């Protein structure tokens, strides 16, 4: 993920996890150690209100999954992280129980986007208002036999086509 001219990515060397960031302005690399209890291979890096954050890349929705835990990098020089826990509204329990969702990313309006393997719907979790909404996608039923479809945020192939809608 790229935030304010700094590219962040994960790496593993000799079974040691590390977070690497490259500052495009200074053209320098730096390293940050994640907390030992976190497995960055299983997490998605996101831009959380202008700071690097990490969230589990797959979420199993069940009655027990009523909160969302995000690890936020507070100070890269001191290797300081903070955990922020968001309690999900009751709609989450009722609408998503028993399903696996992948974290797609975060929109410019501070919404975490969650998608099933075949996206006939998406969930948008707003960090600011702490509410969640479900958006159903219609018209893709013919493709449901495919094992997986990918959701990509903020992609526009041709802005002129968007003007037609």
UniProtKB/TrEMBL annotation:
Q: Which InterPro entries match?
A: F-box-assoc_dom_typ3, F-box-assoc_interact_dom
Cited Pfam families: FBA_3 (PF08268)
| Stretches of the chain forming a coiled coil according to its record | none
Q: Could you tell me which residue ranges the F-box associated beta-propeller type domain spans?
A: 1-156
Name the NCBIfam families for this protein. Answer: F_box_assoc_1
Q: What is this protein called?
A: F-box associated beta-propeller type 3 domain-containing protein
Question: What is the species listed in this Swiss-Prot or TrEMBL entry?
Answer: Brassica campestris (Field mustard)
